Structure formats: structure tokens, C-alpha cells
Amino acid sequence: MEMEDEKRSNFDVDLGNLMAFDSYHTFPSETPLSREELMKQCLLKGTHLVQAIADALFTLPSTQDVDGPLVTLPPPLTKLPRAKHLPKPKPPTKWEAFAKKKGIQKRKKDKIVYDEQSGTWKRRFGYDRANDEDAVPIIEAKPTDDPKDDPFAKRKENKKKRIEKQEKNRLQNLKEAAKFGALPSHVQLAATALPITGTQAAPKKVTKDELGNVAGIAATATASGGKFDKKLAGEKPQQHQGKYRKFLPVVEGSGIGSQEREQTEKILNKIISKNSHDILNVEKAVRMHNVKKEKKRRSEKGKASPTDRKLKTQKKSFKKGSFKKGKANGK
Amino acid sequence: MMDNGTTASRKTKDRGCFCVCVLVAMLEIKTAKTRKGKRELEKRAPKLVESSKKTLILHGTKTSAVLNAVLAQIYQLKKDNAVKFSRKNENVKPFEAGGETSLEFFSLKTDCSIFVYGSHSKKRPDNLVIGRTYDHHIYDLVEIGVENFKPMESFCYDKKLAPKEGSKPFIVFIGEGFEAVQELKHLKEVLLDLLRGEVVENLNLAGVDRAYVCAAVSPNRVFFTHCALRLKKSGTVVPRMKLEEVGPSMDFVVRRHRPPNESLRKEAMKTTREKPKKKEKNVKKDELQGKIGSIYIPDQKLGEMALPNKAKGVKRERREAKRKNLTDENPSKRKKEDS
Q1: Does the predicted TM-score (pTM) go above 0.80?
Q2: Most C-beta atoms within 10 A of its C-beta, which of A111, A147, A258, A304?
Q3: What angle, rounded to 10 degrees, do the helices at A2-10 and A35-58 form?
Q4: Where is the composition biased (Basic and acidic residues) (chain A) (predicted)?
Q5: Which CATH class is domain B44-198+208-268?
Q6: What is the ipTM of this complex?
């Protein structure tokens, strides 16, 4: 017994890991044991060590549970490396820094607010919210307003701008956090394509279909028009298969036969009508001008003479005028 | 903003020499699209107090039958917290420069920080590389050869004793070699990390059922075996422990090893005193009344409540008697009508 006690005191027991280590035991190297014996010795020694752990473990204060006695283990003694770095503190956002400087403190806001327009209590945010600027159906015009611009469109645009600004600020704060390696775990900052130099906007993303089309067009750039090319798995067939142009019969006839003539005439007409201002018949133009002038002068003369007017009015009142008069008399 | 831009461009135009282009890398905020995805990412984020390390088990282009069995059985031992790859991996060569990129990628994808890599070659038959990662970069490596492998199936024992999956093991190291020899000391640490399972605060004593025994038989050889624990009555609080070999058992022959970089080790060993804050629920603080806690009280089922004394009319016998009388009366009435 005494021997065993002495031995036990030599073991290092790490109860947190349920580990025991005997650093004094040596296996004989000069006279190698047979494997059987060696294993037996290992197991025997192992039993001692396991007993040592159990001695420490079962004497810990325990609480009875449905499944068995529960024991609170001490923290592990052997230090093992972490799998990931320690979480880093998040740097303050621009607003947080500003608020701290100015001494602005966070306040809790009520979830429900009085809506003045409807005279009821409504949620502060979200659908059907209180004091919603966007839900106002009529905007009163001020005398200073420019009648040309639409106040509703302006309101919409303002809102869009506010959202954009907020998004920009958010990105800026996240970038700052990324510098410290303290991005929230569910957020990633992914670099999109570089902007085309001289522009601020990011280039438009090319869709899969568009890329496929381009690939199809590029594939036809061989002598055979891509006919004998090896196709990759999943590659689209070329876009234009077969002929591009269609020649109509030149011999005149009905149906298709007349189409060729029509087509050329159409084109010709278009050209002529477009360039008609170039083809100016001076003689005709002068004559037309003169006629117009004459007509104008004549009409002016006619207006001036009272007899003409009388005749005209009489003519007009032939049908409707008499009817109207009768009606008036009846009344 | 716009005005500034135009004036600036005008100035450059006036000078007419060069145009300055500022390349601003466009950044896009990417967030988890689903709640489930977000939870998964949060699980993987660095934590103040870490949960146990996951193990990745994989093999190279060539393996032997022995090695296949070894990997499969290590996976069985660690089944609750391990990932096993079943395909060949050409690009994984942990000790060679450039051979670790693929491995680090796997570690990132599977969120594993210990890996067991098996390979077999003429120079190093039945080779196992056990390594750890820190921040998904290789931290340290130990290479061992497997000899005298005895699979689980070759041991016969009472199946009732078989250790349950995911139970916390006892780990025993025997021999001065684990302290004297640098390689073995390193191996001991890696084995402890691999085998110890989850670090728990509360342990159920009824659930203690397995032990790993590692013995440094010679300066480069470690005997490893897996045992079931049999708790026997001893008359005291502490039961008498008995080991029953359940396998697998094998010899590890130490080959190459790469200890961690000193600065990296320092970084990885960092711990903090502060404990993760637990969210305080149902507690309010009032200036006048101080701390107020709200407690949930289940619904009082008044309908089922037992009354102290039942009123006469409510009593069952009376009710039943009344009903009886009614049924008795009816036939008599009918009889009268008949006659």
C-alpha cells in the first residue's frame, strides 16, 4: 500500500482534461520485453493512472441528477493553443465617436407613437407607421414653389438620397472595422470589379446569357463559321445559323415576284423624300407663291365688303338659324 | 462634390499634361442571405471561450489497407466531432512548401482545426500526419508511422462495455520519454488535443466509460490503445477501475515533426480573464424600486381546481339519482296513456 501511495503522488493529474501523466516510469531498453509482456505492463500502469484520476474525480463534491451524479471539473491545467484568434473589439462608428465627444447618450424610444394625421397610436417604424411623410396624399403648394417640378417626385428622390447616404456611411464604418479585423461574423466585404477609369460608377455586371451570346459570336470567327469547332460542355450553339441575307426573285410577277420591285421603290422614295429640299423646281415655287399671294389679297378684300358678309351669314342661317329662332320664340 | 470634380477636371485640362486616375476598389457588403446561414457563420466566428476542435480526416493519393482502417477507426472514435473525406487528395503535402494551401482551404471550409492526414509511400509506409491549425493556417505538424495495428474488430469483449459516442475520455501518458524527448513531448500535446474531446465544466460520473493509454516504450515509439472502463465496487466512494481493451491499438513511430513558430505559439496561447457576457433576461432596474425580476407563472386552471367542500347539488350521487328518477317516471307516464 505504501508503495502505491508513493507512486500516486508522483503522477501529474490534470483533472480538467481527465489526463494523468507518469513521467518517472521507464521501460527497460536493454532487455527488450516481448510484445505481450510490454502491453500487459502498459495496461497495468494505465490502470494505476486511471485509478489516480478516478481518485481525484470521484472525491469531488457532486450533485445528484436524474442521470447520475454531476461533478464540476476544475479548468484544464495543460494549456493548448486556440483554434482561432481572440475576438477583437469593434472600433466605434463615426456616429458613436461623435456622440461620445458631444456627450450624447442613447435613449430608448417607444415602439408606439401618436399619429397626428389619423389621430391614433401607430408603430414608429415599418408598415403603416406614424407620421409617415411618404403617405401624405396632398402637398400644399407655396407661392415660392416652382410650378415645373413635381413635389412627389422630389420627395421620392430625397428619400432615395437619404438611403444612399446611410448605405455609404455603413460601408465606411464596416471598412474601418475590417481594418481592425473586427467585422461582424455574418458580414463580408467583397471587392467588386474596378471602376472604369474616369467614372465613379461600378461597371454593369454582365449576365450569364450575355456572356453566352458573346461566346457564340466569337465562336463563328473561323473560316468555317464555327461549323467544325469542338463544342465545350454546356456551350451554347451559335446564334445565327444559316443565311443572313435573302435575295428576292428579280423576275416580275405577282406575290413574291412583285416584292423586289416594291422594296427598291420604297428605298428610292425614302431617299427622294429625304432629299426633296435639294430638288427644288424654282419656276413652280414662284408660281405657287404668286397664287397664294393673290388668294390672300382677295380674301382680305372680301372680308372688307359688307355685302359679302351678309350673303355669307344668310347662307349659314338657312338651316340651323331658323330652327334656333323658332325655339327661342317658343320660350 | 460635383462642382469640385468638374473644376478639378478643368484644371487638368488647362494644364493639358496628364490625367490623374484614382483607383478606388469598389467594396460590396455581403451578408448571409438566410437566417440559417447567419447562424452558421456566427458559430464559426472566433469566440472568447472556444468549443472543442473539429477534426478533419483525409488521405493522399495512395493509402494502404492498414491506413484506411486506421483513418476509419480514428473517425469512429471521434465521430461526434469530425469530418472524413473519402476521396484522394493530390495537392495535400503538409510538410512541403505549397502543399498546405489545399489543406488550409479544407480546414476553412469544414471549420476543422485538427487534421489527420494519411499517406503511404515506399519511403514512409503507413504514414500519418497529425497537425493543428490556428486561424486556418498550419500551426504545427507531427508525422508518425503506424505499426502493429490491431483493429477494433479483433478484440472480443462484452459489448455492454463498449464506450458511447462522444463520451469524455480518460487520457493516460506513461513514460519519461514524453518529457525527455522533444518529439514525444510534442506528440503528447497533439494527441491530448486530438483525443480530449470537449472541455466541459460539469461531468456526469455515470458517463465515464473510456480511456486512452499512450506509453512511450522507446525514445521514438509510442504504444497507443483504446480501453473501456469497468467500474467495480471497492467499498468506498471511489470505484475500482479496470481497463478492458476494446481497440484500436497500434504503435506510433515518430518521423518528422514541425513545432509551432514561437511568435505564433505566443499568439495562439493567449487567453482572457473576462468571461463571455450572458444576456440578462427578465430583469428590470427601477430607480425607486431597485431591481425587479419578472417570473413566469403558468396558467391557473380554475376549471380543474379541487373545491374544498362540494355543494349538495354538485354531488355525483344526487345528480345520478335525479337522472334515474326522471327515466323511471317516463315509462310510467306512457303506461298511463296506453291504458
Answers
A1: no
A2: A258
A3: 80
A4: 142-155, 301-311
A5: alpha beta
A6: 0.74
